[in-house]
Design goal:
- 2 copies of one chain form a homodimer.
- Chain A has about 260 residues and is α/β, with parallel strands linked by helices.
- Helix content of chain A is about 25%, strand content about 30%.
- In chain A, the strands form 3 sheets. In chain A, strands 3-4-2-1-5-6-7-13-8 form a 9-stranded mixed β-sheet, sandwiched between helices. Chain A has a two-stranded antiparallel ribbon with strand order 9-12.
- In chain A, helix 1 (about 20-25) packs across helix 5 (about 145-160) and helix 2 (about 75-85) runs parallel beside helix 4.
- The longest helix of chain A is centred in the middle third of the chain and has 14 residues, at about 145-160.
- Chain A is globular.
- The interface between A and B is large, with 79 and 79 residues.
């Protein structure tokens, strides 16, 4: 008897986000879906894990046939708790998102959405994160759905190489994007990252803010270029940090002898 | 007039940890040192950033001539706040640690110590994280100091390629390690990651626990092998996720046409 594929879903915008419900609505056609999300927004959590503090898991009502759980942890905690204490068998795919907001370029490093996908990848499971470049809680995800269908089915069928997961970003355009492109993460940096305030006692505090500056705006092979031009970006991302030793680090080899 | 090099120091064990003080004691010989650390332990924070919540910076008394600050943020927040609101000029090097506990193999993904080093690297600054494989708050860091001297001076002098920082782990051995080796992060996984408890109301909760299982125990080129054999491991780590597209992802290119 053939079992349906098992798909583990998470995100960083919480179990209540619209984006994850849109994602589930597509994935239930591909397999059995179990959803394990944070109980509240956990944006910017990267691959953070909860150390020392207790973690709790609570079921929430099924959605379109998917079993749903919330946890008190980070996106990575959600994947770990699912693997160790919720799922009865190993999932065939981990899908994270759909994030409300871009995770292109350097944003990927801080993204909880991609944290969950990277954790799936670290478990050796084919994993994908989806994001829409619109922070609005009521964003329109319809432009994402064809890409979700196509990529999820392909990843489920083909798998991904060890240590590689996909970071998919969909531009917030009025019409469905007409093109999807495999590209590289753009060189970019955040400028002016904090807004400064003075509290009633006269002490300064800071809130995260700023503007993402594209350091290679004319490079058509990058995710930021694609998104700006209405194209869906697909970036293969490595959580396997085995590098081929760059030539430039010959001096590092020399340190071995020097030590 | 030549300025002394400026070295930015952070960690994830807090401004009060012994490890960062040991690190500072060596780095003050190489340049002007400014220290910006979390005000409390922030282990397992990876590259998490604080979104929406206010961040505060407070000076603490100088240590061995180094200017010292604590913040209410994560290790990555510390680097960002230093870059935007504390430092008067761009640092020549970022050094994070010395962590109380191993950040070898997959631990690197979750490490706040390496989060700070990776953030320095994302700013384009040569960056290194140091860890000792001993969690004890009163650990003996003397076995780390020669490696700190040698590597910090070399990184300051030679720099590092774009997107690459170093993850240095020192084994907790009775005698100073006799060897240092450039190696790859070992394939390993955490087994049995949570201990389950029942609270007074009868509800389950979980605390992070578990055991790191080495998936390639005989591979002498890995950090875990080196550490087990009393050798200091130096792993070049990429935060630049520009991959050469693996051959195996030809089907992904085909998706472009299919979409």
């Amino acid at each position: 008897m053939n079992e349906r594929p098992l798909i583990l879903v998470s995100n960083d915008d919480s179990i209540n986000a619209k984006g994850v419900r849109e994602l589930i609505s597509r994935l239930v056609r591909l397999g059995d879906v179990v959803v394990v999300c944070p109980d509240a927004p956990r944006s910017g959590q990267s691959m953070a894990i909860t150390v020392n503090d207790p973690l709790r898991i609570s079921p929430v009502p099924d959605f379109m046939g998917a079993r749903m759980y919330k946890t008190t942890g980070t996106p990575v905690d959600c994947i770990k708790l699912a693997m160790h204490h919720i799922l009865k068998r190993r999932p065939d795919m981990v899908v994270s998102g759909i994030n409300h907001g871009s995770n292109a370029s350097v944003n990927e490093l801080y993204s909880g959405t991609m944290g969950a996908a990277c954790e799936g990848c670290a478990f050796g499971i084919p994993s994908v994160g989806f994001s829409l470049t619109d922070h609005n809680p009521d964003a329109d995800f319809s432009g994402c759905l064809r890409a979700v269908d196509l990529i999820s089915e392909a990843v489920l069928t083909r798998g991904l190489p060890e240590g590689i997961c996909l970071n998919v970003n969909v531009p917030d355009t009025k019409d469905e994007p007409a093109e999807l492109r495999v590209c590289t993460p753009c060189r970019a940096h955040w400028d002016d990252e904090y807004k400064e305030y003075i509290d009633p006692a006269g002490h300064k505090f800071y809130l995260l803010s700023g503007e993402l500056i594209n350091d290679e705006p004319d490079n058509e092979t990058t995710d930021l270029w694609c998104l700006k031009h209405g194209i869906i970006s697909v970036v293969p991302t490595s959580v396997n940090r085995r590098l081929i030793m760059p030539e430039t680090l010959g001096w590092l080899q020399a340190l071995q002898e020097k030590y």
